[in-house]
């Protein structure tokens, strides 16, 4: 079907369908009974989430989460989104998206909730693991790659949670106050980038923005999304508590999920009573149906999407690649890589070493066929006899004794779903008095502490003091404050929640089959005072223009670890940065040489600064990144183009994006630290 044919078909449906039928297409149906039936197990069914009319033969959307793999069925479990943010690898992320598209289709779904791109404003955010990091440019690039990959297989990707959803416990009530400039320059540009790349759906957030729930927020859903950006796809709500009134339809919400609570009879009544114009219903249905038919009519790249494709070898290989590319080496006092031939025995300590710890237990929980833990991975790599379980936090002295008798020690520390994750209130999955099934207890939430628990710090200290070849492996969804113990640790590798192949990747990284190459997609603070204010129970909170590295640089503080930082087993030299002004913006090129001894990937970053500008701007902003693989001695020249649009600021008075003429500093290098960058000026 061509676009014209689809338009004609949609127009015909809108004429033929009754008001009740149209309104029924504006909500999900069946989730509550299905989730009850599956005992609270998400993804046991495809969830009907808009469209669908049996009498007129109209197909429906069927939804599945989520960010770290397809929740429906038993899919491939990737490293969490934050880990994949650390890969800075658009091509890999697009391939991850393709796997999600294929597995969603194999599970009977055509709408995916995988593209979560809320900006990490504070590392305590419980769902930090579901997003890519703190920088809008990076979020937009990675999210666009994922959406394009998913949609390759004619599954509609939904960008969520629109918008400013980055406090978990208070998500159902918090009112986030933000000025128009901060909103457009910091909290929304990544959504626009992803929608411009073709992502065809948006999920509204639970929270309020400037006094109005996001699901009812005309400013966000109509004025910005449709008016300023020209978005043609449809918007659906977040689950259950995202809509409070049928008026949401008039504000620009097309689908209430997962059930017709406000958009069922209440919406029909509102139209009949004249409170809502019938045109609102036709517009919403038009968007839903046009998107549905565009995707349904497009040719599939594959002949069929079958159950054997789910978590197949090719998909596991991508999960392994993502785990290899995402680990960030933060410290290495000549400990890593370990020499396989010199290791007769390795001691592994920490409760998390043998835990299937792939992340939170909220809507993004994936149910893969297996998970390779750190212990599993090391045993597979070295042989069972060489791996000694040295004990855990309960007895650091015992672990230290075991470590003293080994050639190297690995301590796995960090968090689990008990410490951070999506906050699911206890009553959400129901409970059934008759059958005796108890309502589920509340789970997840924001972190209370940015550091490690005292017993994990004690374990690190004990093991590191008895074995000078100790490597601390940190598992988390975002920044962990390391100030208290980092001096005691000879090497630190942050692996995040590394997915079903995580342990296998860990062994390969520790023994140098592959060099760590991930870079931090966020700033690690020295102290919580370096961060914007955070209150997990906030009723109201103000989001200002600075967070992460822009805040650190504005206030002149030195981070514990800078945005974009990550060590390698090799090292890289940047030189010959050239910058040229073109009609549309700036072109830059820089040469990178691998000056170390091993082949490795490097993530080159490009920042733009605005010295002496009259308008207040961050000291610098990320505007380009590329991952390159270099053999020892090899040099490659990387090119970046930055459009003029990417340099503009938003003027709230004229409501225009403006370019301030003058000097712009272009810097390139391996992290955001000033000492890692070389720079050139260009006058625009
Ligand atoms: C989450 C969404 C998710 C939805 C459906 C909500 O609680 O906030 O991210 O897509 O549930 O599972």
Q: What's the count of strands?
A: 28
Distance linking N and C termini: 46 Å
In CATH's first tier, which class of the largest domain applies? Alpha Beta
CATH architecture of the largest domain: Alpha-Beta Barrel
CATH topology of the largest domain: TIM Barrel
Global geometry: globular
- Please count the helical segments: 18
The hetero compounds bound to this protein are:
beta-D-glucopyranose
Please identify the oligomeric state: single chain
Largest sheet: 7 strands, mixed
> Roughly what is the average pLDDT, rounded to an integer?
96
Cα radius of gyration in angstroms: 25 Å
- Class computed from helices, strands and strand pairing: alpha/beta
Number of domains: 3
Task: Extract low-pLDDT stretches.
Answer: none
Helix content: 25-40%
Sheet with most strands: strand arrangement:
1-2-3-4-5-7-10
Describe this structure as you would to a colleague.
- The structure is a single chain.
- Helix 5 (90-106) crosses helix 6 (136-152) and helix 15 runs parallel beside helix 16 (454-466).
- The protein has three domains: 3-302, TIM Barrel (Alpha-Beta Barrel); 313-530, Rossmann fold (3-Layer(aba) Sandwich), CATH 3.40.50; 570-683, Immunoglobulins (Immunoglobulin-like), CATH 2.60.40.
- Helix content is 27%, strand content 23%.
- It is globular, with a radius of gyration of 25 Å.
- The model has no long low-confidence stretch (mean pLDDT 96).
- The protein has 684 residues and is α/β, with parallel strands linked by helices.
- The strands form seven sheets. A seven-stranded mixed beta sheet has the order 1-2-3-4-5-7-10, sandwiched between helices.
- The two termini are 46 Å apart.
- Residues 65-66, 113, 160, 238-239, 363 line the site of beta-D-glucopyranose.
- Beta-D-glucopyranose (BGC) binds next to loops.
